Please model this.
Amino acid sequence: MYSVDLPQIDDLDHYRPISNTVLYDDRGRPFGSFALQRRIIAQYEDFPKVLYDAVLSIEDKNFEKHSGFEIWRMLVAAGHDLRSHSNVQGASTLTMQLARNLFLSPERTFSRKCREIMLAVQIEHHLTKKQIFALYANQIYLGHGVYGFAAGAQYYFGKDVKVLTLEEAAMLAALPKAPNNYSPIKDPDRALRRRNLVIDSMIAAGKISTMEGATAKRTPIRLQIHDDPNSLAPYFVEETRRYLEKKYGAEEVHEAGLRVYTTLDIDLQKAANSAVLDGLAAYERRHGWRTHLPQLAHERSEQYNVPEWNQVEEPGDYAQAKVLSVSSASATLRVGRYTANIGAGDVAWTNKTLPQLLSPSDLAYVKVIGIGPDGKARVRLEEESGVQGALLAIDSASGDVKAMVGGRDFSESKFNRATQAMRQVGSSFKPYVYTAAIDRGATPEDEVLDAPATFVTASGSYRPHNYDEKFEGSITLRHALAESRNIPALKVAQRLGIQTVIGYARRFGIGEHIPPYLPVALGAVELTLLEHTSAYSAFPNDGVRAIPHYIAKVTDFDGRILEQNYPVVQDVISVHTARTMTSMLREVVLHGTGIAASRLKYPVAGKTGTTNDFTDAWFIGFSPDITCGVWVGFDEKKTLGNKETGARAALPIWMDFMAAALPRLGPPKDFLPIPEDNDLMLANEETDLPGQGKKKLASQISAERRLVLVGAGSKTSPAHPDSAVAGVHK
Model:
């Protein structure tokens, strides 16, 4: 009767459990996953002998000999159950456990046990022992949402299952019996006893020597918990998830085990993470201590744990730390499994004493400076005032997104400031103005008058100013852009016509609405960091913009290609215009507002940007190969503070990232020279095509050289050279 309605197992050799969708970087290194269950499917050959021996020693010593069940084990278990008046339980072989996990409910009844035996016999007839073990090893639950020994090795020990040590293999083999009871996270002492029981079973089975077992039993359980596989690039992972779910559906993405080969570079992403967090920490220190630390309620204090504690692995990590004790001389904190001490001298930058800053059960924000073998860490007290930062790096030639940071902490805010935030760009918009001029016949050495001027617009007249309240008279376009002079940019835009400037911005791929007002020339327009950075990538790429993308290829679990993406490019401007603008943006770095970047030992170029009241700070720049954009600001669009310009707040982050990224991209490479045959670029006065600008407009701009300086008007507050003109928005 128990054979009725048994599951069919004819296709069991093709069975595959719910599998993770795995994300790989551009070198094939995994860095993220999506799954309803945390699982990594492995082959029989991937499981080391020490794990095989550990599992069989504790779960099924005669696995290689029996045909699915052992009658004597069943009789012993039944006798025990009769004496204890309990339901049939225990005595399950490894094959019976597999049958139960695959096909049956966990209820403990005599009928279920009979069905379990029948299925086990069928499985043994249909599959080899190696296949059975591999299925079991991929299917078994190990606690904390983890299924299978490959995923267990990654989760508990942060390593590939192939390189497990004896004691680590024994710990994993100890879990299937009761994953929650023997969890080394929940109950380390109980887990240790169970692990050592596995080691004793291996000794008894002759799988290891008594000496090997004794050494392993003396070894404490050392966990390296990897709780969040997406912690390296969470904003990039989230962008990828949205795309995949929209195209393939949530069920396929979370259960079918897709393989997603992305454009991300793990090394560049790590550099980006560090650059943003270090840059925000430097900003906080410039402004002193301004926050009040949150405090844990007493009932939560003892058991408090935060996800990022599991990710604290190396110097440079930032995390929340629980304050354990405080005195006038020192404070003791806990960061995950580490403790750390902070001395009075370590907080001198705050101008406060330790008791003024910290109290027991406070949550402090710290940077890990060093980690010792004794469970001690060296940390530095930092601050979280709410300032945010974003960074995006793109391969200029292909459009591959190589690194993305969308904010300070993904666990606190999923809002991606690299792709979703619309922020005013300030003078980082000016290159589009000068591109229009160069493309239509001007040269970098043409002159424009930097003098007081009143401009009449649809919203009225206004008199813009330069940051230094000075006017330099007749200056070249190259110098005007390098020093981010406001008056020259407006004059060039006025002569071109603001609609022409907007048209050029459109060529660069900027699709956001741009109001047709002259102050747009100074950046009175809101863009995303992704859009703005992608536009700049046309300069080092000889006037061609590769549309940014995240995914190179997607395959199903069996390797069949579902999609494969190649660069999609758009012509923006001519080679001549692109290289000319690159030389002008190089001047920004060599002698202008971005001069700090000249310390890099690689040719780079770019532009700073700052908005009114120092609300947004930008730097968008590039090398011959990679374009990177950085934004710093508060979400609520409040001031960063006096003189927090793009050069001060954003450029150092950009420099830190590029200093780490550029050596990974090969030896230093210089920008290509401007083509000498300029006549070809100006051959057609009538066309609006890129690179064939109008001599008439060029002569108009050059005629500025002959203008007489206008007397200074009434004195008003200056605008920063990177900033949009005050009073633009009503």
